[in-house]
Amino acid sequence: MPDLSLILPVLNEENIITQVVADIIKVLESIKVSFEIILVENESTDNSWEVINSLSRKDNRIRVTRTKQGYGSAIIAGIKIAYGSFISYMPSDGQIDSKILIPLWQETKSGKADVVKIMRKNRESTIRFVRSKVFNILTRFLYPVDVSDINGSPRIIKTEKLKQLELTFSDSFIDTEFAVKAHLLGWKFKEIAMTNLARVGGKSTVGIHTVIEFLKNLWNFRNDRNFNNWQEKYLQ
After folding, report:
1. I want to staple 47 with a disulfide (CB 3.0 to 4.6 A). Which of 14, 33, 166, 197 is the partner?
2. In this predicted model, what pLDDT tens digit does every residue of 167-183 receive, in sequence order?
């Protein structure tokens, strides 16, 4: 069993995923952590599936699977097949400096927090920065969440704990679901500041449809059947 399972959703990243994975492997090897990397392709229209299969054939620490489109769908698919004692997930668009995994892992091993994650100090545009701030404020207003950057990943958590969250959302709202449920369980978060790198590949999938979908999910989440069933199971 590896120490860490690192899940990367892959959507139209054929030109950069090889380098992203190589950088991550270099960092994880430097801190002598045993690991597996789970690449989850979710309905790419390029050759991402072929590329990640090639990577897995060359390195048995790399595993691949496919799922329907949606960031959350990819995370859930990765969790289902993860073997590691800890699970982490993060974007694969090259904006994450893989060296941040070093302090994240060190903090995780200290055992002082249940969830260790990044807190982004910047976004790729002013519009994205403002939008993120508004989303975080709205979420904290409606739900018991005190984490600064709800969508900030990578994040690391014990596998047995993560499975208690029983995550269900197929889109980026999965991070809000994660935060709300974790805080209801009384878990402690530790955030480590990180500056986003410039996007080197792929395209942002955040548009007006994403905003509308997020606001709809945010409003309806309190009465979501799966969420209510989860609360009955773990909070009563």
Report:
1. 14
2. 999 999 999 999 999 99
